[in-house]
Amino acid sequence: MSTYDVVVIGSGPGGYVAAIRCAQLGLKTAIIEKYSTLGGTCLNVGCIPSKALLDSSHHFDDAVRHFEEHGIEIPGEVKVNLEQMMKRKAAVVSQTCDGVKFLMDKNKIDVYEGVGSFKDDTHVVVDKNDGESITLEAKNIIIATGSKPSNLPFITLDKERVITSTEALKLKEIPKHLVVIGGGVIGLELGQVYKRLGAEVTVVEYLDRIIPTMDSALSKELTKVLKKQGIKFHVSHKVKSVERNGDEVVVKADDKKGNEVEFKADYCLVSVGRRPFTDGLKADAAGVEVGERGMITVNEHLQTNVKNIYAIGDVVRGAMLAHKAEEEGTFVAEIIAGQKPHIDYNLIPGVVYTWPEVAAVGKTEEELKEAGVDYKEGKFPMRALGRSRASGDTDGLVKILTDAKTDEVLGVHMIGARVADLIAEAVTAMEFRASAEDIARMSHAHPTYAEAVKEAAMAANDRAMHI
Length: 467
Fold this sequence. Notes:
- By secondary structure, the chain is α/β, with parallel strands linked by helices.
- The chain has helices at residues 13-24, 40-45, 47-65, 82-106, 165-168, 185-196, 216-228, 322-336, 365-371, 386-391, 419-431, 436-440, 451-459; strands spanning 2-9, 29-33, 110-120, 123-128, 133-143, 147-149, 162-163, 177-181, 200-204, 232-234, 238-245, 248-254, 260-265, 267-270, 274-276, 309-311, 350-352, 357-362, 375-381, 397-403, 409-416.
- It folds into three domains: 2-149 and 275-343, FAD/NAD(P)-binding domain; 162-272, FAD/NAD(P)-binding domain (3-Layer(bba) Sandwich); 348-459, FAD/NAD-linked reductase, C-terminal dimerisation domain (Enolase-like, domain 1, 2-Layer Sandwich), CATH 3.30.390.
- It has a five-stranded mixed β-barrel with strand order 1-2-3-4-5. A five-stranded parallel beta sheet has the order 7-14-8-9-10.
- Residues 348-457 form the Pyridine nucleotide-disulphide oxidoreductase dimerisation domain.
- It catalyses: N(6)-[(R)-dihydrolipoyl]-L-lysyl-[protein] + NAD(+) = N(6)-[(R)-lipoyl]-L-lysyl-[protein] + NADH + H(+).
- Belongs to the class-I pyridine nucleotide-disulfide oxidoreductase family.
């Protein structure tokens, strides 16, 4: 029987980062993955392939709608080769997953392919895909099994016409009409991909706005921009049935007045969130308590109720984000090694990779109001930037919320070109508890999109220069 200091179950961003950090700290480490490729949902059927399709469809959209104004003429009709687009996406995924395998080899981490489950609190059984079973002994075990798409109880996912994000990433044709159930990150990103490629896209959302967990200013602006791009929105609509009839899908919902509304499409993407995936883990054999929905309860050290077993990422509380899982993977590795790391969950940024992009960190205005915090607001529109006008990306804004007394930055909310990258400036500033004035007095290169952050910080103290 092989014995390890740490065995990690799951090779997504949380799991493989945890394994690497454990190995760096001198711990003998193994990782278990049930699929033939490493990287989990994020690399295989999530973050990476969706960004590849977003970038490819963005290029096509630019060629169709914007090249001419830049003086770029393409003879003949610009066409989509969906097969090639999917082929490129697959290549990007393959390269990224191969990169994780390289890192496992580099750090001398043993990789076991198969389904990992508990025998007891120090032994994990690996049921390999060839039918063989082996048992690993571990002083410490990290559960990093991730999540799966959620569904509504009355919807049958046939994975052909009624699909999840996994199937949406590998369609063989462009939908004529795609109905997206859910106005969150995944639904909007994939909705925009297929809208750019020529599909009619309708988003049906139960709540009264899209991206409901983000600041309402971002929701309002993104709705306006995506409507301008041709996506249709039906918020405050409760879906009550989804039926497939041949190649047609009929979605029925009640609007906020209780009237029934019907949507007919050839594809329906069910994008109503994700659920922790702990199926088959046999956590009870180790004494680990798992909630009804598969969520594992952990303490401030990410320990389960069994002290040598930890859980990270989508199977524990908090936002289901790859970078949150990575931070937790590093955190647990260092806890096991006897160090004293920290994570500030308030400073885990959230991003929507539509175009324009949406990004945020810290408190929303709604949260500050609910908490009774006295705050100030600084806003700056992207259209006022020279860089935005030069690139044609004039939609969006940056909004900074600060403490009214101390000027400390409490939240930063952005929508615009490249804000997925710009949000790192806000995270850095808030990690060091910067004030709006601190940001305002830092030199920002001109012309850049980042100048909007400086201007919003200046606006928080009524001294914006360019509006």
